[in-house]
Design brief:
Elements (H helix, E strand, L loop, with lengths): L6 E6 L7 H15 L3 E6 H4 L13 H12 L2 E9 L2 E2 L1 H8 L16 E8 L2 H17 L3 E2 L4 E4 L10 H21 L1
Parallel strand pairs: 1-2, 1-3, 3-5, 5-6, 5-7
Antiparallel strand pairs: 3-4
Helix pairs in contact: 1-6
């Protein structure tokens, strides 16, 4: 066991209170904590980030909260609803702010495993959004976990206690914690 527990930051957000994506993110963080990690939840909907504009950067407290959490992170879990083959605008907007970490000692999300959860009302929508998210976090120098979790909420409402979904979330959370422990 490493000298200190890995710190896992969960990022989620939906305009819908009690969303499936947030419930699964909370489950993933609970499982990460049970696996020996410290955890932190960032709800980007509640955070109220301004729209990212490269030519007009914002440095308000909400942006600093997000970036400070990501800088502390040894691993990250992102959960988003899938819309039209991609993540929610809230999640994509939050990830745009990672650009501000480009000059850090650990630039962007370098050296961090990132687990991904996508919920959508259809298998094609959830898988397409998962692939888009994998590309995005990979471009941010993160290590997407081997297992991503697409959930078709049209067939598997959340929370349903569906053992297959719970098992996939547990495997993915375990991969994030394991990678974070080894990398730390």
């Amino acid at each position: 066991m490493p000298a200190s527990e890995p710190h896992i930051v969960g990022i989620g957000g939906s305009g819908r209170p009690g969303s499936a994506s947030m419930k699964l993110l909370e489950l993933a963080l609970d499982l990460s904590a049970a696996g020996g990690a410290t955890v932190e939840l960032i709800d980007v909907a509640a955070l109220g980030l301004p729209v990212y504009m490269a030519d007009n950067p914002s440095s308000g407290p909400e942006v600093q909260t997000l970036l400070a959490a990501l800088r502390r992170a040894d691993g990250v879990i992102i959960s988003t609803p899938g819309y039209h083959g991609g993540p929610s605008g809230l999640i994509k907007n939050a990830l745009e702010y990672v650009e501000w970490m480009s000059a850090d000692e650990r630039p962007y999300l370098d050296g961090r495993a990132v687990g991904l959860i996508v919920t959508a009302a259809g298998l094609q929508a959830s898988v397409s959004a998962l692939m888009a998210m994998r590309s995005t976090v990979h471009a941010l120098r993160a290590w997407p976990t081997p297992l991503g979790v697409p959930v078709n909420t049209a067939e598997t409402p959340v929370p349903s206690g569906d053992p297959t979904v719970i098992n996939r979330v547990a495997i993915m959370a375990g991969q994030v914690v394991d990678f974070a422990e080894r990398w730390k």
